[in-house]
Amino acid sequence: MSDKPHQNLAIIGHVDHGKSTLVGRLLFETGSVPEHIIEQHREEAAEKGKSGFEFAYVMDNLAEERERGVTIDIAHQRFDTDKYYFTIVDTPGHRDFVKNMITGASQADHAVLVVAADDGVAPQTREHVFLARTLGIETLIIAVNKMDVVDYSEDTYEQVKTEVQELLKQVRFDSDDARFIPISAFEGDNIAEHSDNMDWFDGPTVLESLNNLPEPSPPTDAPLRLPIQDVYTISGIGTVPVGRVETGTLNVGDNVSFQPSDVAGEVKTIEMHHEEVPKAGPGDNVGFNVRGIGKDDIRRGDVCGPADDPPSVAETFQAQIVVMQHPSVITAGYTPVIHAHTAQVACTFESIDQKLDPSSGEVAEENPDFIQAGDAAVVTLRPQKPLSIEPSSEIAELGSFAIRDMGQTIAAGKVLSVDE
Ligand code: GDP
């Protein structure tokens, strides 16, 4: 681990606009790709009579290495600049990227939005910018990619920039903070060094912009919250729930409670990366064993917290949502599935309390009869099975969720308050 402040970075944008290529390029330029992978690739490329360097290939190899449990740091896609240590929070192109982004599995402070110069703003560009705004991404760096494909044309860059600024205005992203950079992830233009191909651009490169990001917000003093991903039985140890510590600290000897299963016990052992540790903190993936708890007492979707400050279980909760896509109208009684942390629970729209003006955030209508795609609203939801969830103002990590139906993410939301 590095002593530098840690930043979580999301790389967002439409499919094929170059997210993976940019990640590969960032790892490469910062010396984070292992030499043997580069060598191996050069040899294979030479055999096929090719020169050049395919980042897709590097990314595939990183994924393979991760599966074999090697070079964890690289597989997790980490790199550093002079000032910060960066973790890319999700693999671009991952099927559940949007869901993970919403449910907090990928909490990012900042994002790089990749927009291909030859394509401009595309459907997922909109969707991701919309989510980034809803989820409180602080700073957006907009990389106008594939500049090599458009002959490094300043006019094309300006057109795409105007399109994106228009989009930011529509979703009310404070565009003063947005930084635009014309790049070629493939050729390496304006990534680490200023490109001679675009002497009309004198702004910072991608790595300079990352280095200039605001300091990450300090960790909160929120209590332990550890959503359970899986529950294993391991011989010689017993029941081992596993999950990622979102907030607080888990210590051997702590009395912990699992909600909504409503069981409690004392932590006997904690294991991280196959080693026993005395404690674990935010971001740590752990397996742990709790005295007296059996495999059937707890399940995926439970949240572990201190026995004297347990995670809340919602009878109903009020939330602010944004409807991204839905074929018809949403009315009270609608019952889609809520994905929050590791839980998936059907929830009924008990009432639609307010429709908000998407351009100002102000109340546009009290108790509307329905909402539809593009609307923002305050709604009251009733879980059909016990669900542990928290107001996002108290524990941001456990206060955001996705609403899914018919195999699609139809809305994203944040919990305003919980009625237990
Ligand atoms: P993703 O789906 O957003 O992760 O996109 P990829 O990184 O997989 O890139 C999609 C395709 O565009 C691949 O064939 C890349 O080689 C190509 N590509 C990405 N960036 C550039 C670029 O800057 N210039 C050119 N010419 N091709 C690029």
TrEMBL record:
Function noted in UniProt: GTP hydrolase that promotes the GTP-dependent binding of aminoacyl-tRNA to the A-site of ribosomes during protein biosynthesis.
CDD domains cross-referenced by the UniProt entry: EF1_alpha, EF1_alpha_II, EF1_alpha_III
Record protein name field: Elongation factor 1-alpha
Residues that coordinate or bind Mg(2+): 20
Residue ranges occupied by any Tr-type G domain in the UniProt entry: 4-219
Main location: cytoplasm
Gene (name only): tuf
Alphabetical UniProt keywords: Cytoplasm, Elongation factor, GTP-binding, Hydrolase, Magnesium, Metal-binding, Nucleotide-binding, Protein biosynthesis
Enzyme Commission numbers on file: 3.6.5.3
Catalysed transformations (reactions): GTP + H2O = GDP + phosphate + H(+)
Compartments where found: Cytoplasm
Family membership noted in the UniProt record: Belongs to the TRAFAC class translation factor GTPase superfamily. Classic translation factor GTPase family. EF-Tu/EF-1A subfamily.
Residues holding GTP: 13-20, 90-94, 145-148
HAMAP family assigned: EF_Tu_A (MF_00118_A)
GO CC terms: cytoplasm
Lineage: superkingdom: Archaea
GO molecular function: GTP binding; GTPase activity; magnesium ion binding; translation elongation factor activity
InterPro entries: EFTu-like_2 (IPR004161), G_TR_CS (IPR031157), GTP-eEF1A_C (IPR054696), P-loop_NTPase (IPR027417), Small_GTP-bd (IPR005225), T_Tr_GTP-bd_dom (IPR000795), TRAFAC_GTPase_members (IPR050100), Transl_B-barrel_sf (IPR009000)
Upper lineage: Archaea, Methanobacteriati, Methanobacteriota, Stenosarchaea group, Halobacteria
Biological source species: Halogeometricum rufum
